[in-house]
Specification:
By secondary structure, the protein is of the alpha+beta class. It contains 22 helices and 23 strands. The radius of gyration is 26 Å and the shape is globular.
Length: about 550
């Protein structure tokens, strides 16, 4: 989703955006009061009146009408949508960057809610809840059993700010259940969930969404890393499906010299057309960067990647992005529901629309696009990517780029399936890696309480051979037989994921990502590219055929 926002940003000769909810509400009110009712609208009203008055069974007409809205919006394009009032708060929480709750991250292991991370400064930390605790009940509602789901847990842990939830906790060193009265409060939802130095000069940042707070989180992370010595940055947008357009524009502005086009929009109404450019006040205009993308990088992610690529400011690495070039306005309706209506298309600095093809009202094929990409081999072979060679555009320095379906990376990295054997798939599908990692963290928790770094954690854990043998024995006890031929093929993958899961349980989610990155080919490619000092003008899209030819030299 790409949403417009109301902060002050660099715009060429155009007024600043205003609060969209207010504008939308005023627009809807004026529009409805200043126009006559069409024949089709009167027809619909007549049908509804007939149903209410004469249908054989009594029908709640309001509920009937409610079922029409999703289909009505769905007939326009794949991204216009109706949001029922019951879902609006949860939908907005994610983009607003916070929600009201107790402040823990959890996972469900063996039918029990295990606390993985206690958010610093949050309500749970203030009352003494610890990583490793099991939440048994919330306000006398059981949170255990075969039927427990994440949705059920969220429903009972989240609530109105200032409300109290009584949690019954099972702690390993206590024979009795512990009781904590937790006063719910705002809990931040971080957009930048991992940032660290790879070496003395190169840093990694992962941005998972574009919420209202994303730019400030990103800017603060950049500054913190630079204070630690970072001069070059790997910016990971893989899996980032978008959010507020303005946040991506502000992020791109940090890296661009003055008067560089970032993105522009075109719509049917003039008020939805804007041109956004850099103001020259960015603090990282000289920093070398690479941007990581994949097929789930969409919308605002593509705005950022497109601005960096088209201005030849950095190198895009990974796989072709999703291909969403539509802009939505969200308007809240009188009953606290909302619609997200597509009002414009956006274009990257070279003039390309990266929106992939769709037919109005036919969402099925559009939704299956990623499945189709996988089926014809695009995730593994750059030559399988279906580029529209009729939509040719050029970057600032004359490199060729294509429109009409996502952003093609400058350097392609296939999806990594190294170590994917039937054994690995079996233990993953049964959740055994997570369960084993948690059991190890529990076993060593007393020794690990003071551990603050991954290096220190790895020194305490058993050696690799012992760790793997213990895992295989654990899997056997849980119904997966030992098949050492396949286990040895999956050895590196299994050990990396086991250690990453343990790091998450002990050190938190950022440590989990950092551990996984150790063997991530796309992150490694980004690091090597910065290490070698390659500039965008040195990079030409590399196909599988090129790689094969080069490997024979």
């Amino acid at each position: 989703m790409t949403m417009k926002n109301n902060r002050n940003i660099a715009i060429y000769g155009l007024p600043f955006l205003v609060a969209l909810g207010v504008v939308g509400g005023i627009f809807v009110g004026r529009y409805m009061s200043n126009r006559s009712v069409s024949e089709q609208e009167e027809k619909l009203r007549t049908v509804l009146r007939l149903i209410e008055a004469e249908y054989v069974d009594r029908v709640d007409v309001d509920s009937l009408v409610e079922t029409l809205y999703p289909d009505l919006l769905g007939a326009l394009d794949p991204h216009s949508a109706y949001i029922p009032s019951s879902d609006l708060t949860a939908v907005n929480d994610d983009l607003n960057g916070s929600f009201s709750g107790v402040g823990v991250s959890f996972q469900i292991v063996s039918d029990t809610v295990h606390v993985i991370e206690v958010i610093a400064g949050g309500p749970a930390e203030k009352v003494g809840i610890l990583p490793g605790d099991r939440i048994i009940k919330a306000d006398s509602v059981p949170l255990t059993g075969d039927s427990i789901t994440s949705e059920h847990v969220f429903k009972n842990l989240r609530g109105d700010k200032g409300s109290t939830v009584v949690l019954n906790i099972k702690r390993q060193n206590s024979p009795k259940l512990l009781t904590f009265d937790v006063v719910r409060n705002d809990v931040p939802v971080n957009s930048v969930d991992c940032a660290y130095l790879i070496d003395d000069k190169i840093a990694y940042l992962r941005v998972t969404k574009f919420s209202r707070n994303t730019y400030m989180e990103f800017f603060n992370a950049l500054n913190d890393l630079r204070e630690k010595g970072a001069e070059k940055f790997v910016i990971d947008l893989r899996g980032n499906t978008g959010g507020y357009m303005e946040q991506a524009i502000r992020m791109a502005n940090e890296f661009l010299p003055k008067d560089k086009l970032i993105v522009y929009t075109k719509g049917r109404r003039p008020e939805n057309e804007f041109v956004y450019g850099s103001d020259g006040n960015g603090n990282f205009k000289d920093a070398e960067i690479v941007v990581l993308t994949n097929e789930q990088s969409a919308s605002a992610s593509e705005i950022f990647a497109g601005a960096i690529q088209d201005n030849d400011r950095g190198i895009v690495i990974g796989r072709r992005s999703f291909g969403k070039g539509l802009v939505q306005n969200q308007t809240e309706l009188p009953d606290n529901s909302a619609i997200r209506l597509t009002v414009a298309r956006y274009y990257t600095p070279s003039g390309r629309s990266i929106q992939k093809e769709y037919s109005r009202g036919e969402s099925g094929k559009y939704e299956l696009d990623l499945v189709d990409r996988y089926a014809h081999g695009e995730f593994y072979n750059a030559d399988s990517i279906k580029l529209d060679k009729t939509k040719i555009f050029h970057t600032a320095n004359g490199r060729t780029v294509y429109g009409g379906g996502g952003i093609m990376p400058d350097l392609f990295v296939p999806e990594d399936t190294t170590g994917y054997t039937s054994y690995y798939i079996s233990v993953m599908n049964n959740g055994l890696i997570q369960k084993f990692a948690y059991s190890v963290a529990d076993k060593y928790r007393g020794m690990l309480n003071g551990v603050k770094t991954i290096d220190r954690l790895l020194k305490i854990l058993p050696r690799d051979n012992t760790l793997l043998e213990n895992f295989v024995s654990f899997a056997v006890k849980n119904g997966v037989p030992a098949r050492w031929y396949y286990i040895n093929q999956s050895r590196t993958l299994l050990l990396n994921q086991i250690k990453a899961m343990i790091a998450r349980d002990v050190l938190g989610y950022p440590a989990f990502i950092q551990m996984l990155n150790e063997n991530d080919p796309t992150v490694i490619k980004g690091y090597e590219t910065l290490k070698n000092g390659k500039s965008p003008v040195d990079i030409q899209p590399e196909t599988t055929a090129d790689k094969t030819k080069n490997s024979k030299k």
